[in-house]
Specification:
- The relative contact order is 0.15.
- The protein has six helices and nine strands; from the N terminus they run βααββαββββββααα.
- About 35% of the residues lie in helices and about 25% in strands.
- The strands form two sheets. It has a seven-stranded antiparallel β-sheet, sandwiched between helices. A two-stranded antiparallel sheet has the order 5-6.
- A hairpin with a 5-residue loop joins strand 2 and strand 3.
- The longest helix has 23 residues.
- By secondary structure, it is an alpha+beta fold.
């Protein structure tokens, strides 16, 4: 059994932003993709880093494959833009070692949805049952509040350019305390036969979600003041 008092966490810089309103932890094996950098101006630090990474990738590609790569990058850019408009706020790729030595790959996404105001438990349950292709598996009360979990195995169309025809997907619906927003945490993998493993990973991540800043006071003190708080202080002192 692991002693939780000995666990160590790496705090991502996104957890220290003044506009952060949700915190969660992921186990080793996940690498966050800074997708938002693709949409920053190329003259900004974020945009410059994204451009440098793309240029480095292009330098490694043979000339005869360059046109195909540019097409795929353009398609990926459009897809990510659509996901952002639909509320994407986090995207990570996972690589996990199975008991038999295989490397299991996964994709972790977190979306924020605006919802009609209502009781949080009903909001979670309705969101989970609204998706016909998913099977509701639990409606628990987590540390962050009421939640609903679903699972689904989706068959990909025959024309899909992939060696895998099925996807396993676990989703958690976590209403914000204000009762008007919903966090949707989804873990997807082509390793359908490892669903029990991914179910446990997904559940652990969902249980770590907090809508109150869980960081130690010393780190909280380093979070910059939000624009709203600064405006209020400027008016009322």
């Amino acid at each position: 059994m692991t002693d939780e008092s000995t666990l160590e966490y790496a705090v991502d810089e996104s957890a220290m932003r003044s506009d952060c309103d949700l915190w969660f932890a992921v186990p080793p094996g996940f690498t966050e993709l800074p997708f938002a950098s693709l949409f920053h101006d190329s003259g900004s630090p974020e945009g410059g880093r994204a451009r440098a990474a793309i240029d480095a990738l292009l330098d490694l590609v043979p000339e005869e494959k360059l046109a195909d790569l540019l097409t795929r990058l353009s398609e990926a850019h459009a897809t990510v833009g659509l996901l952002i408009r639909e509320g994407l706020i986090h995207l990570s790729l996972g690589a996990h070692e199975a008991d038999d030595g295989r490397v299991l790959e996964s994709v972790l996404t977190l979306n924020r949805r605006e919802m009609p105001h209502g009781p949080r438990n009903l909001m979670a349950a309705r969101a989970a049952t609204a998706r016909q292709s998913a099977l509701p598996v639990a409606v628990p009360h987590l540390p962050c509040g009421p939640a609903a979990f679903t699972e689904a195995v989706m068959e990909l169309p025959a024309e899909a350019d992939t060696r895998c025809r099925s996807l396993y997907q676990a989703t958690a619906y976590l209403p914000y305390p204000d009762g008007g927003r919903l966090a949707v945490l989804t873990l997807t993998s082509t390793a359908v036969d490892a669903r029990e493993f991914f179910r446990d990973v997904h559940r652990a991540i969902a249980e770590s979600v907090s809508f109150d800043n869980p960081l130690p006071e010393a780190l909280k003190a380093r979070v910059p003041e939000s624009d709203v708080a600064a405006s209020v202080r400027a008016v009322f002192g």
